[in-house]
Amino acid sequence: MTPEAEDRPPARTEGGSRQAGQEPSLPERLLQALGGRGAENPGQLLMNRLRPSRILEKAADEELRPMGFGLYGAIAVDFIARQSHPPRLADISRFLMQEPQSLTALIQRLERRGWIRREPSQRDRRAVLLELTEAGRQLHQRLVSVLEGLLQDSEGEHSPG
């Protein structure tokens, strides 16, 4: 048996036990990566771990919607604002763990609204740098207030009372 196989939970059959050599399910692999072992219901355990962040994400989306934002848009603006040099789209996509192609529409929307501008990189002609406009910096301050309020609310809900 290989060391990798020893770390793997036993394969399950339709009756619930795992067959030798069968790969673990996606929820089982995710739980294993998160440190969960031997779960009776790996999907449920995984959702229990993810639920608080999903609740926070939904609350943030509701708060930000009137401003024309979702959580990832707000985080992207915050990321741009906090960099010492204008970041590239690839930098933002790495931070958000999203493919650059999936962020293109967001960046275009921010640019159309006058909150960011794209500038060609002097070092790399293929790269485009993103920076906040004055309106974008003002927007950033409002976004930070909303996000800080959400974080304080969520910390209050999870602290012992």
Q: What's the CATH topology label of the largest domain?
A: Arc Repressor Mutant, subunit A
| Helical run tally | 7
Secondary-structure-derived class: mainly alpha
Q: Widest sheet: strand order?
A: 1-2
Looking at the overall shape, the CATH architecture of the largest domain is Orthogonal Bundle
Portion of residues in helices? 55-70%
- What percent of residues are in strands? 5-15%
Q: Name the helix and strand elements from N-terminus to C-terminus, one letter apiece.
A: HHHHHHEEH
Shape: flat
Number of domains: 2
Describe the structure.
This protein has two domains: 40 residues, no CATH class; 108 residues, Winged helix-like DNA-binding domain superfamily/Winged helix DNA-binding domain (Arc Repressor Mutant, subunit A, Orthogonal Bundle). It is 58% helix and 6% strand. It is built from seven helices and two strands, in the order ααααααββα. A two-stranded antiparallel sheet has the order 1-2. Strand 1 and strand 2 form a beta hairpin. Helix 5 packs across helix 6. The chain is flat and about 60 Å long.
